[in-house]
Amino acid sequence: MSPIGHGPADSSGSDLAHRTGPQGFDEVERSAWGGILAVQGGAIRRVEEDLDQHSRLTHPEFEVLLRLAWSPDRRARIQDLATESLLTRSGLSRVVERLERKGLVTRSRAAEDGRGSYAELTAAGADRFAAAADHHIAFVRSEFLSRFTRDELRTLGALLRRANDPTPKGHPAHP
Fold this sequence. Notes:
Blueprint: H1 27-55, H2 59-70, E1 75-77, H3 78-84, H4 89-101, E2 105-109, E3 117-121, H5 123-143, H6 150-164
Antiparallel strand pairs: 1-3, 2-3
Helix pairs in contact: 1-5, 2-5, 3-4
C-alpha cells in the first residue's frame, strides 16, 4: 500500500500506510487525516443533496451567492471568488455564467484595469440566496453543528483556521 493506504507502495507490495516515521502516517495522524477526509466527503455530499432538493442550487452556485451576499456592495472580482473557492477561475466563471443565465448575478468588466470581471448579486439573486440560506443554516445546524457544544465549536473553528493557514507554523506539541 502507499503511504496513505491506497494501492501497492512498491513492487514488494509492502504496506507503508501502517509504518511510522517519514514513510507513513502514524496511528494518530491516520486517524486525524482519515477523519478530515471522511468529514469533508460526507459533509459535501450531504450539503449538495440538500441544496439540490430544497433550493435547486448546486453547492458551487450557493457558495458564489453566499460570497457575493457577504461582499461589500454585493459584488466581487471573479478571480477573488475563485481564490476563496475550491473551483478554478474557469470553473468559477462557468458557475457565474449559469447564475447569470438564471438572472441571479450580473457580470461586468473591471473598469480599473479592464482585464478582470466582477460578479454582482441581483435582487432576484439576493432573494434566492436568502430563501436558500434559511434552510441551509437550519440543515447545517441540525446535521453538523448540533453534535458539538459551544466550547467544542470554538475549538473546532480555531483548529480548522490553523489547519487552513497557508503559512503553517510549528506547534509546540508537534513541531
